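ok so I'm stuck.
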Amino acid sequence: MSCCVAWPNSPCAFRRPERPQGCAGGRLVCPAVADHDAEVEEEEPGLAPVGASHVLVKPLTLAIDIGGTGLKASVLDATGAMVADRVRVPTRYPLLPDGPDGMVPTLVKMVKPLPEADRVSAGFPGMVRGGKILSAPHFVTESGPGSKVDHRLEKAWSRFDLAGALQEALGKPTKVANDADVQGAAVVKGQGLEFVITLGTGFGTAAFLDGNLLPHLEIAHQPFRKGETYNDQLGERTRKDIGDERWNTRVRKAIDQLDAMLFFDHLYIGGGNARRVKRDDLGDVMERTTVVDNSAGILGGIRLWEGDHLGL
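replied:
not stuck anymore, here's the structure
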């Protein structure tokens, strides 16, 4: 199993605009990723801005990663080089899509220190179609994942045009997709059916055929085991409750089920808890599995503007 990484001090960090030997299209493969015990809420080591000698290649993309515990963004040039330090603020609850303290003004304020970009991409943890939010499982709750659902928030988020709202607020063409779709867009190689799972605050999935994003399926909220969904059984709150050993057993069962359903050619595991996956427990699927760095949630913003993505 390979590990696609973007550590600032790595010999194959994504921040380098040139393509080192053995790297294709900015998808860099290293033999291992160091495990550590940092909480999923903490900032991941990842991209670092390029030096002053780097010649920026346009268009510049403002890439936003909307998460259940944190909101992150940076500006990337066309090579994938990050041209400014990444900005981050914690996700606060309850969170309306708009209004004085809503998602859109929070994002606008967060990205204000960043350089001006030519376009905007955002990954959102829910079902998105045509830039509109069809489901927002984190943001319809009173105080975050696992807390009580607020029907007022459900109504506010239902079919909210997040792409349109961000485009109007930022004055730039904007695309919004599911966050797992965006993360996957950064790492897939364009070879056959490639499947992505993200393990973080919740559980996410994405599917690509020959490099093109397929329509998103909310597998996370389908029954998995014991009357609970994938999201219920594999999310961060559950991992903390049951411990890494039992959680890893569930991850393996989930992968087995999804492989039996899709017969994927390659699997990518991302998200803040990907580092906790015990590689030796994956069995035969390990040989066609890549663990990817969490910074892919930002890098994928470029890929939304490339290719023929049926899922947008």
